[in-house]
Amino acid sequence: MQDYIKRLLIAGLMALCISLLFLGGKHSQAEMLDIEELTSHWVWPVEGIVTDLYGTRHGHHKGMDIAGEYKTPVHTVDKGIVTKSYYSGSYGHVVFIKHDNNLETVYAHLAKRHVKEGQVVEQGDVIGTMGNTGDSSGVHLHFEIHKEKWTYGKENAVDPNNVFGEAAIGQPVLALGKTGDEISMETIAKLRLIDDRSIGAHADENKSKESQNQNTAADKREETGQKKHIVKKGDTLWSIAKLYKTSVKAITENNNLKNNHIAPGDVLTIEKASGNSYIVTVGDTLHSIARKTNTSVQELMALNQLKSDTIQPEQILIIR
């Protein structure tokens, strides 16, 4: 009798698990069909070659990359309202648009933005031009779709292939066109040439004067010991100072910070410390550090602009 009851319980649990899996699958399929229906009229945002897809880079890539010629016009896929238009350390020049179907699209790494926050746009309007700004390794548009709204964790991200169809890396696309539209051989040849120059490359012989100026500025920063640090989640001024062997005081002064508050996406200018540096450990005093580094307490205080001999573990001190 007990064995019979056990068998019934096991069978019931198995049936419940199967039904939950079935319902989950139906929900996902229904959700996908809903997205396809809501976006059936959308058009490609730019002319170029698909160079990366959703879900690559160990699942961290939450959009689609389309490489093309520098300053190629970027269009909105549908009408909507610009929710954000700004410069980000990671996205570069970026535009966010909220659409009537409650989806939000993101257009990143632009050379220039042509729209402002709160502006109403129609389908096909030019909202900017393709560029290589922010954390980018070549001229391209990084395009994202999100249900309801974009979040830092990108929990609401939608695969653009659910909208445009099964695009593949190396596939040419036309601005304002749709998947399956016929593309002339001449256009394909032009896009292939652009693709060869763009993928993984920061520069080529035809790069614009504006982009060359950006590279020159970067070279000058390297020569003077300056670096740019894009703040990531979990970063603190202490951890950044430790990474670059500088001090929190130097970072706050170089970036005109009024307090120690920093946020993901902030871009900090890091000035390379002159001389060597010493990381304070538990038990250290200025006297013990002076002995270890063959200097004096007075010199340590002067170099680090210390008003007292109080120091903290993990503090970065500049030494001769």
UniProtKB/TrEMBL annotation:
SMART domains assigned to the protein according to its UniProt record, in alphabetical order: LysM (SM00257)
GO molecular function terms noted in the UniProt entry: metalloendopeptidase activity
Domain LysM: residue ranges: 227-270, 276-319
Pfam families named among the record's database cross-references: LysM, Peptidase_M23
PROSITE patterns cross-referenced by the UniProt entry: LYSM (PS51782)
Gene3D superfamilies: Glucose Permease (Domain IIA) (2.70.70.10), LysM domain (3.10.350.10)
CDD domains linked: LysM, M23_peptidase
Ranges for region Disordered: 202-228
Name this protein carries in UniProt: LysM peptidoglycan-binding domain-containing protein
Organism: Mesobacillus subterraneus
